């Protein structure tokens, strides 16, 4: 008996239109597939069936049973291209004639003959990037669109659009872009709406007429001035159908000219854009691609012979098309009643759309890592073993893309040339993929920076103007790093690897002391420093580890460093300052240690022994100040024969010009504007506050359960006002910071002091011993000055987390200036919170929630009775529904997501608001279970204070338990009698260890989330359980637990 195809409940007249976000339809359809399974029916309002896995899709590729359906945006494009190759209806005679006539023009020899013209256009783009230099961001979608459009125009019809030489666009290009945009818009609205929108309809027809007019001119020009060239236009003019002997009339030629210019650039530009995003997200793949290019091409120009010698580049392209098929779906129509996989009946003439991104990520075909970018799976030996029709980015059968060889050759050439010529990095290291959907899909807002690997590479290129120097043009885009200035000072490179901003703040702190020691600092991320380490230029690396992995902006540097040969960094003096948390002993200081070892192995000269700072025990800023004063600068002085000025005693001061009246707002980067939708208190009033906040992300923003949301907060107004009062600043004061001193703050422009204090510096940062000593020197009363020095010597300041502002209030007579105060503060950094929702369980896929504790307690370091107010948590608490905030989605570490296979059991352990990601996990599984999907067992071990105070989301978890989605094991610290005498989550895990063991034996994945002490305690109890089960010692058990990390054991631990 045939199964019923699931259908989400719709609305009268409009059906399921509201279930699909018109700006991001593919994401919406993927979410529906997650909820309803691999086949579902929607009414949009016309009926459409969607298929999202291989088992069901494979029957659709039988051309005797299904044929191409021209629907949606493609049917609207037909207004311009009519029966052209891509928009013809099945059986149209002109399509058959054109297809047979033009097939030879896309044969291997014909495509190879276009190599020189493709190379011409690629060189234009490369030269443009080289001239603008590494400080100018490149919008990859824009430039790759110019590249692919100019290539198809030159190769197919002999026309040069010269997109890289003009700010304005060619009239054909403008008309084409307008036509495509309106075609897509028409596909989303009822036919009557387009009929009454006269202005847009007139523009639409005008654009189509422009395309036809220009195409006619090009055709007539070729007829009047024929050329002996085997391009597409000559094939259309002179070719004959080998079956009927017919040629193409002028109307057919014009329709197909327009067709090829559209199809020949849109998909390939998207492919290249997604490829470079994935390469920059996957350092190992980027390294292998560069190595292959270097091995095959070296420094020589690319030739046709090289095309077949780049299998890894080809695999990268195929893998990109697997994950991001730029034409993300195609639709087939049933030829008679059909049955899919012996399960679902498809009626005659029913339309079925194949969601390629889901077909290509089917774990039954591509394995458990189907969501990951892994080009090796697309190398010839593995690619050829894929099931038939499991990879279909170019369509299917007789209606498959005729231009596939053209697209692949062009993409290989462009990729190899770029990798041969440039080092590439993200413009914004924290950029996460956002997809723009029109006729095809492309990354939105993705920019890169390019730096020549060898500046002399381009000197051999013959330029049309021989007088050109070929040097990179200066950019108006300001660099985030300190520029090296001219004069007697020498350069020093300070490199950081940082996800949360801590190591970047340490790098800025070190830079602030460089100038007084005779060095001009350049501060940058490790990834931006690839191949830039120079002999005799000191390098300081400041970085931490994240579960033993490098920070996001250091992974490419690690790959590059590992690839260096012995002696590759001769005469490079270096020092490493490592940051970590010793509670995670297995991975503590792993990345700093590895960098230190590999730098030495490559021939660099170690200045001082690697510093290792435990953030759980030490004030990082204190530590780096002590390290640089006692070890680093003296060692560098000895190495370079410079005199050190670190003991000069006076606090560094910024030169300020304070005025009133101007209050500009300072824009911040790397975040986007979101809006608060809901907020509520979760804990009992009068107890430590734990809160829930709902956030509406910008349309099209995607996330997965387990990801983070980074918040750019504002300091609490009470703290800002304390600073203003201490320095006697009026409420509307502005300040201009002299740019002659290095600082992370904007210089040489008026800034509102309130805005600066609220949004640009860390006011709650614990004061360092050096800063406190410098403050003491500015107190005119010797008794008070000595008192502060004694407080510093006794260590009380560090123990109490005293801030610089606390001390300034304690010693109001100090003459410490506002400029000194600003110079002492690190830049305000993002705070990351685990998202506590799932996109498929939220009101819309772009809505998420956070679950957080409000930090609000007496300030131990303040003698004035002030409170310690957590910057981000109190900021979130102050917001109201409708308010806006700056956020950014950040992916969690690789495996901290639900298993791809819904049937895989999971064990979760957490305490307090560490529950956040698991609330999202269970919510997602609940939705899937309600839709009839088979989900694995879920065990949740949760620790909190008291069932009547902070048993978060209790009612919702009770409902999910009743539905059989999860089983919850609780531990109440202050009411342990209500939790089988278990006070902490690790106690409850030990008490119910048999359930954990049983679930693990069934293939469970284990997840833990919480503060560092919670994470280490949970790990210890897992070791204890393993030792008991395996009857082994705890050392052996600990090794086994460590071996499970990254495979079946995932941790998200925060400070």
For the record, the count of structural domains works out to 4
Overall helicity: 25-40%
What is the approximate shape? globular
Question: Which secondary-structure class do the elements indicate?
Answer: alpha/beta
Distance between the termini: 56 Å
- Mean pLDDT across every amino acid position: 89
| Number of beta strands | 34
Q: How big a fraction of the residues is strand?
A: 15-25%
Instruction: Detail the poorly predicted runs.
Output: 462-487, 659-669
CATH overall fold name of the largest domain: Cytochrome p450
Question: How would you describe this structure in keywords?
Answer:
1055 residues; alpha/beta; Cytochrome p450; Rossmann fold; NADPH-cytochrome p450 Reductase, Chain A, domain 3; six-stranded parallel β-sheet; six-stranded antiparallel β-sheet; 36 helices; globular
